[in-house]
Amino acid sequence: MGGVVATLIQPDGTAVRIADAQKGESLMEAARRAGVAGILAECGGACSCATCHVFIDKLWFSKVGDPDQVEEEMLDMVDYIRRPTSRLSCQIRLHEGLSGLVAEVAPEL
Ligand code: FES
């Protein structure tokens, strides 16, 4: 297992490269393990808090895909900071095709 690389840019502008993300885990889980600042994940990945909000890099967004209806409703609640590439990182399952993914952590709520 393993082998998925992701880079998250923290709210202070510094980047964290996650080199050991596991296939099948969520981007939020990998970010929490790596200690990425700004990924609070207060609901533990249940798609009900939006404290794992990230802005996917434009070049990667089509590979990550659009949010489903439930996630869409959560993102509506943070509409004031939402961007077209907003996703909740707990809803992104990592796989080989996402290795190299770049995303920016949204500002704290
Ligand atoms: S961890 Fe709460 S919505 Fe993602």
From the structure above, extract its key features.
five-stranded mixed β-sheet, 20% helix, 3 helices, alpha+beta, Ubiquitin-like (UB roll), 109 residues, binds FE2/S2 (inorganic) cluster, 5 strands
Explain the overall architecture.
- This protein has 109 residues and is an alpha+beta fold.
- The chain has one domain (4-105): Ubiquitin-like (UB roll) (Roll).
- It is built from three helices and five strands, in the order E-E-H-E-H-H-E-E.
- It has helices spanning 27-33, 58-64, 69-76, and strands spanning 4-9, 15-21, 53-56, 86-88, 101-105.
- Strands 2-1-5-3-4 form a five-stranded mixed β-sheet.
- Strand 1 (4-9) and strand 2 (15-21) form a beta hairpin.
- The radius of gyration is 12 Å and the shape is globular.
- The termini are far apart.
- The mean pLDDT is 96.
- FE2/S2 (inorganic) cluster (FES) binds at residues 28, 41-43, 45-52, 74, 88, 90.
CATH architecture classification name: Roll
* Strands ordered across the widest β-sheet: 2-1-5-3-4
Largest sheet: 5 strands, mixed
| N-to-C series of helices and strands | EEHEHHEE
Which secondary-structure class do the elements indicate? alpha+beta
Given as residue ranges, the uncertain stretches (5+ residues, pLDDT < 50) are: none
Give the N-to-C terminal Cα separation: 34 Å
Structural domain tally: 1
Q: Average pLDDT across residues?
A: 96
Residues in β-strands, percent: 15-25%
